[in-house]
Structures are given as structure tokens and as C-alpha cells.
């Protein structure tokens, strides 16, 4: 490129549909007998003389699929320091958002970092264990119990599980003792299960009907 004796340059640009990528090359040459080279006028459709920001052919749309990961590129779960990332094998890029991997759901932050603990998304809360996998069912966290529905969303209000009723407050934490809801009082046993029938509390007896409501 820096040799002043070169007399000709060849430039070509090619779009590969298989990888959805553009390729460009430059060749420099010295012809001892320029007469044998022929005319140097570019053929129709050639990219010779075009600037790097212009194309006489069609440019791929911005939404074209990303190219697959290059051969030898690490994909799948990758750890950097104390943080885990997931490299999508189909694109070679960091995954973000919800991903179903190996039979479990994971949440990757916008920077690609795998989430653990509580995650807020779409107005709902989800809990990811220390492996990053989304939990369902009962979860103990910070000395309190929470219930995650089958889709992983944290429950609030009444929850039926195993033939028993439980009440989760607005933070999602399971309640025990007396709870007022919908104009009635209910009693939740120490394990959180709603009581019915006679209940002794504070040296007094209370009667709760089949719905759990206190009958005054």
C-alpha cells in the first residue's frame, strides 16, 4: 500500500447472503506493460471508486438477522468476574431479557448480566435463585415466605395451595395472625394456613365460618 511503484488498485465489495454480511477488499499492483492490462473503466454495477459509505448495489436492511457466532467463538454461559452472561450461539451476541435455557427461565439485564434475587418486569416481581433460574412455588427470603405462581410472578392476596388458603400482603409476604380483608376478619395459623371453626387466641375463642370469616 505504501510502495510508490504500484500503478494500479483494485477495490471490490461483496454481500454474502449466507452470513448476511458485507466484505470489502483492496489489491495494489504494478504492471510492467500497462498496455496489456486493458481498459480500467469499471464494469456496470462495480463498486470501484465508491466511497466506504455508499453502495451502487442494495444495502442489507437494518433488521437483517445477525450473523452466527464465528468458528471458535465461545458461546453459552460465560463468566466474567462474579457475573454470568449468556452468549447466544445463533448470533454470537450477549442475550438480554428472558431466556429459556436448559429447562429453566433466566433473566439477563440490559447489559447481559444474569439476574439473581428479585427481578421486576412488566409490573410483576419474579425471584431468581443463586443459579439464576426462575423459581415457582414457595420461597423463603429475608425471614419471610413468598409464593410464586406457575408463571413465576409473585402472588399477593389470597393463594390456594395444597388444599389450604394463605394470604400474601401487598409486598408479597405471607401473613399470619389476624387479617382484615373485604370487610371481614380472618385468622392465619403460624404456618400461614387460614383457619376455620373455633380458634383460641389471646385467651379468647372465636368462630370462623367455612370461608374463614370471623362470625361475630
Give descriptors for this structure.
216 residues; mainly beta; two-stranded antiparallel sheet; two-stranded antiparallel ribbon; 41% strand
Q: How large is the count of helical segments?
A: 0
Q: Give the fraction of residues assigned to helices.
A: under 10%
Largest sheet: 2 strands, antiparallel
> Largest sheet, order of strands side by side?
1-2
Indicate the mean pLDDT. Answer: 80
Elements, N to C (H/E): EEEEEEEEEEEEEEEE
Give the overall shape, derived from the CA principal axes: rod-shaped
Estimated radius of gyration: 33 Å
Q: Strand share of the residues?
A: 35-45%
Number of strands: 16
- Secondary-structure-based class equals mainly beta
First-residue to last-residue Cα separation: 96 Å
- Poorly predicted segments: 31-67
